[in-house]
Amino acid sequence: MNSKRATARTRLVLTLTIAFLVGLGTLSLGLGRLVLDELDTVGGKASERLTWNLAQVQFSHIKMTEIAYRAKEGENLNVFRLEFAKYYNRVATLHDYPMFDEVRADGIVAEKFIRIQNRLDYFAPIVAGPDRDLVKSLPELIIKFQQNDSDIRDLIRYGLQMETLLGAESKQRVSLTIRRLGRVLLTLVAALAMTAIMIQRLFHHSQGLIAENRATAERLRVIVDSSLEAIVSVDVSGRILSFNSAAEKTFGYLCKDVVGRRLMDVIIPEHLHQFSEDNTASFLKTGDGELINKGRTRVEAKRKSGEIFPIELNVTASQDGDDLVFVCFIRDITSRIEGEKALRCARDDAQAGERAKDKLLTVLSHEIRTPLNGIMGSIELLETADTRSQEQQYLRAMRQSGELLLHHVDEVLEMSRLESAAELERSEPFDLQEMLAGLIDGLHPTAQSGGNLIRLRCRLPEDAHCIGNSKSIRKVLQRLIGNALKFTERGEVTIEVERLAHSDAVEFRVCDTGEGIAADDLERIFDDFVTLDASYSRQQEGTGLGLSITRLIVEQMGGEIGVESEPGEGSMFWFTLSLPLVSSRQNQHPKMSIDDVAARRILVVEDNDINRMLLEEMLLRQGHRVRCATGGAEGVEAVQHERYDLILMDISMPGLDGIEALGQIRSRKLAEGVEIIALTAHGAGDDQRRILDAGFTEILIKPVTLAKLALAIDRYTGQKTPIKMNHEGSDIQQFIEALGNEKAQGYLNALCRDVAQFRQDLGASEQVSQSHQREAHRLAGSAAVLGLTALRTCLQEIEAAAAGSVPPSDALADAWGEAGVILGPYLVSSPVNAGISQAFFPPGSSA
């Protein structure tokens, strides 16, 4: 780059110098011509000097006078006329010739010229007239000529003076021009000398540049030859100009064998010939092509052996003087492709392993939890029967063992869910102080059973409302406090909660006075399947996953967890989370009454009776006006006749489903500016993306709680509700609280009868029918509301089963048995519960 700049500067200086020399040469030629012109002018005046012309006039005057005297006698008149004409013409020349303008410019001289000319003009007609008149006028003419004599002498005197002056001026001009010419010639000589010096320097510099270019070319040749990539250059006709060593190794040709041959005939496979020709032609015509100057592209090439192999190609157009050259950088990526293939295989194997793991966990969940739930449900039913004291003792032992085994299975499943990066529930406003108080109150009986004292110390602002995942925080604290109580006997467990100054961070500390943890165990305490020695565990049972699960939950919330311990002194587990403060007035209104709430018009589109009834009851309790539609078509019709503030729409509905109903509402512009929220039991990521892509504003996963419902109304209508955001409890408890005990019991018993009838119909059929699928869909919605996950999953599988498939009666029986364990406690007190046992376990069932 520097040599190019230096060459450009040298060329510029040389060009300017040559232009300067040309200018000096032109100027010297002009001055030389000017000198010659001056000399010619001086020479011309020498031949036509003023005094000489005046002398000729005087000579003619004298001669005229003599001839006039002789012509008195009438002789020589014609000679007189001829001499008069000469005299007249010479005077006229002095008067009219431009050469004598400077003389005539003098006033006295001009006056004399006029007098002489006037006398001649007076006698000119007489001289040209008859001889008689001429002879008669000769005396007068002689007198006039004598008058001219004095004027002519004066003119001669002035002429001599003027000639001297003009000669001096001409000499001065010639001298000045010669001096200028000399200076120009000296400058020209100096410039020529400088040019010679510059040319000499340019010659030496060019020799250096030639040497430098040779060295650069040699370096480039070495670089190209030693490059790991094949480099091939071709001209616009596609003929090979260069072929480096890497290209020889890659393609199996020698450079001397391919230079001059067409690239297409050497390394381009036949199926790419047309593509290569079209690409080159397009670039030459428009300056754009699919390969040239487009960066790296994966294509195929051909070796000398005929083998087709993958390459990475980068083609660059370069200007070599007036010629266009294409430089091809080629890399054999056969090994990379094979490596990528191996990586894909490894990834597929890993994914298959993950799927196998998930399948195993699903089997664990179903094949272990289902019989366990059946056992636990049977034990619960037996405990209510009239049994002897010793039998009750056996039943309690069975229950404790079953609960412990179920707890272990749940821990394994929870660990898998966290490791698969399953999303935690969305952060919502909650009262941290109230949540902590409720948690500690619930743990007092456990602490007392071990002779322990449990304390809560909070350093929180007066308004402790914050935004976070309260359920996950509760889980972490339950596990840490439970661990502390389990490994502390007749001691003290203290829970400290402090909001760190000038930040959103809150630190939780669980301190116990147990035996403590050895220093060597602190680094692995949060690892999977770690249980410590007897000095700390005191032979406590467990899978060793509790603290590992706790760590994963904290990390998924963006927090940090740690432990400090001294053997014999106790332990302190701590974790820190970001929990931004939020005003309770903005998020919770416990003192607000329904009368204070501006009623909103809300449309609920839901085909499931229980879901529809539950949503309606929740919204009515919040003071809203509700209209219900039992399907998508009815929902579309409803928005045609009334304006709503918010629409809640189920997704899976027979006939017109939620996505289709939304499409009709939006395309027909029936609810402009109204948000439509999806209600669904499908929580998978793909399902949620499909629903949101369809145009729903948000998704509420069933079962929908009062808190989630109130927050949604608040977000999209500006409505503030008097519902507390930290409402806890099981789905069935919320269901009963929402509807009232009597009404809820009626629906629960009706659900039991409907499921029993469905099982009976399904068992009596040899294949799944459309009526079975419709009923399964309806019952799955009810199961979702009540939190009966296994039953809902089984019913959804029946709904999605292929037409004509074998009914999964056994799977439904297992799922319903698990549901019985969950529903049993809420049905025992019902006055209409007669025969409920048969609803779960009809006569003849294996249960």
UniProtKB/TrEMBL annotation:
Residues of the Histidine kinase domain: 363-581
Per its UniProt record, what SMART domains does this chain match? HATPase_c, HisKA, PAS, REC
The GO biological-process annotations, alphabetized, read as: regulation of DNA-templated transcription
User: Which transformation does this protein catalyse, written as a reaction?
Assistant: ATP + protein L-histidine = ADP + protein N-phospho-L-histidine
**InterPro entries under this entry?**
CheY-like_superfamily, HATPase_C_sf, HATPase_dom, His_kinase_dom, HisK_dim/P_dom, HisK_dim/P_sf, HPT_dom_sf, PAS
Coiled-coil region: none
Q: Per the database record, which ranges form the HPt domain?
A: 736-826
Source species of the chain: Parasedimentitalea psychrophila
Q: Where are the transmembrane segments?
A: 12-36
**Which positions fall inside the Response regulatory domain?**
601-717
Entry keyword Transmembrane: yes
Q: Which residues carry this modification: 4-aspartylphosphate?
A: D650
Outline the extent of the PAS domain: 216-287
On whether Transmembrane is a keyword of this UniProt record, the answer is yes
Q: What is this protein called?
A: histidine kinase
Mostly located where? membrane
**GO cellular component labels:** plasma membrane
GO: which molecular function terms?
ATP binding; phosphorelay sensor kinase activity
EC number(s): the record gives 2.7.13.3
Modified positions (Phosphohistidine) are: H777
Q: What class of enzyme is it?
A: transferase
- Keyword annotations for this protein? ATP-binding, Cell inner membrane, Cell membrane, Kinase, Membrane, Nucleotide-binding, Phosphoprotein, Transferase, Transmembrane, Transmembrane helix, Two-component regulatory system
Q: Where in the cell is it found?
A: Cell inner membrane
Q: How does it sit in the membrane?
A: Multi-pass membrane protein
